Amino acid sequence: MGNSLCMKVRKEYGEKARALLSAQGILDCQRKIKPEGMWILIPLLRPVDANISGKLGCLGDAEVIEAELPPAQSRSKTLESILRGSVPDGLVELLPKSYDAIGDIIVLESLDPQLAPYKSDVGRSLLEINPGAKTVLLKSGKVDGKFRVPSHELLAGEDKRATVHQEHGIRLKVDVSKAYFSPRLGSERRRVAGQVADGETIVDLFAGIGPFSLMIAKRSKARVYSIDLNPEAISLLKENISMNKLRGEVIPILGDAAEAAERLGRVADRVIMNLPGSSLDFLGSAAKVLKAEGGMIHLYVFSRGDAIREASAQFMDASVNLFRRREIRIARLVKQVAPRDWQVALDIWAMPA
Q1: Among the listed residues 214, 219, 129, 133, the one whose alpha carbon sits nearest the alpha carbon of residue 173
Q2: 74 falls in which pLDDT band (50, 70, 90)?
Q3: Rounded to an integer, what distance in angstroms lies between the CA atom of residue 36 and that of residue 183?
Q4: What's the confidence (pLDDT) of residue 243?
Q5: Which pairs count as long-range contacts for 161-167, CB under 8 Å and 24+ apart, including other chains?
Q6: Residue-wise over 205-240: b if at least 16 C-beta within 10 A, else e?
Q7: Cβ–Cβ < 8 Å for 349, 295
Q8: Which domain holds residue 129?
Q9: Distance separating alpha carbons of residues 326 and 171, to the nearest angstrom
Q10: Is residue 175 part of a domain?
Q11: Which of 57-66, 249-258, 271-280, 316-325 has the lowest average pLDDT?
Q12: Do 103 and 17 have their domain in common?
């Protein structure tokens, strides 16, 4: 293996350099990034031209050199490649394309009924693809009922439901049999937490085990009232508070969101409403906790078709008599939940009536 082109940059600039080089289309993903003392070597596809060089001035004393970098490991193992020959050819295309990794537990949302005779094979194959995983579960019921907790079937590995999940600097004890949690909102939680300033008061109306609340309190000196109706979720939230070193304060509240909002009164600079199936029904509670001068609402709803337009219309219709002023500042698709259905995030500035 001979020398090849790479950028030598100090470690503190490593992630910024990788992102910039990737955005410019010159990051070589076929070779590994290599640490070298206080530096890292980032592989390049081609020399850095003058146009790109001007955009890299924020990387300190970075330089382009030649060095020997090992090839990136091939991620050749897939469910299809492992199970081809064990599963009939006509069913291979039905194998799941995605799954959730929660700590060392893998959770499949669904499995085609035709694959039922092969579900143990699917589970074992997922453990092979993910060497850090210990358990593979299949959701066997809808997320419904009072506490939104699905049931799960063990496909492979240890028969357990509890784990510790790490997400953008916080640790979360999760028990999928006791409280709902989705790792797919990790980037969304970080986005919202990044908007919070020191000194803010936040009301998290449907906090669950606390991923939004903890992410905010980890990053800012904020006070977060974290409400949930599920006693198991609040118990896990309390454990999670003790597991993390927080800059802010998280105050768990067990109870109904509407009743808790009534008791809290106008304390909130910001309200988080992550209960997409029912959040519109609680806009009145958001109006009761927002400060009189107004504040932000982070609202999550399910929508279909032209999802952002539909979600925005749903909010405007449901909130017409609740706020003196309201403005949707950001509307974005968070995740797809069915072929034409989406979870949509709306960042709304509103002043209560």
Answers
A1: 214
A2: low
A3: 33
A4: 97
A5: 161/105, 161/137, 163/102, 163/103, 163/104, 163/105, 163/135, 164/103, 164/243, 165/102, 165/103, 166/103, 167/211, 167/215
A6: bbbbbbbbbbbbbbbbebbbbbbbbbebbbbbbbbb
A7: yes
A8: 79-160
A9: 35
A10: no
A11: 57-66
A12: no
Return the minimum-mean-pLDDT range out of 41-55, 83-97, 232-246. Answer: 41-55
Same domain, 126 and 259: no
Are residues 298 and 262 part of one domain? yes
* DSSP for residue 70: P
Total structural domains within the chain: 3
Print the SS3 string covering 115-158. HHHHHHHHHHHHHHHCCCCCEEEEECCCCCCCCCCCCEEEEEEC
> Encoding tokens for residue 303?
């929508």
C-alpha dist (Å) from residue 295 to 11, 31, 269, 313, 351: 39, 47, 5, 20, 7
Domain assignment present for 225: yes
Overall pTM > 0.85: no
Q: Supply the CATH number for residue 19's domain.
A: 3.30.70.2580
Tokens encoding 249: 């304060």
178 inside domain: no
* 40 pLDDT more than 60: yes
- Please indicate, yes or no, whether residues 212 and 96 belong to a single structural domain of this protein: no
Give the span between the Cα atoms of 274 and 282, in whole angstroms.
Answer: 11
| CA 261 remoteness from chain centre | 26
Classify residue 138 as exposed, middle or buried by CB count within 10 Å of its CB (0-12, 13-18, 19+): buried
Residue 219 belongs to a domain: yes
The pLDDT score that the predictor gives to residue 303 is 96
147 and 231: one domain?
A: no
pLDDT at 290 over 70: yes
Q: Nearest to residue 205, comparing CAs of 260, 146, 251?
A: 260
pLDDT of 75 > 70? The answer is no
pLDDT (average), residues 206-231: 98
Q: Are residues 47 and 100 in the same domain?
A: no
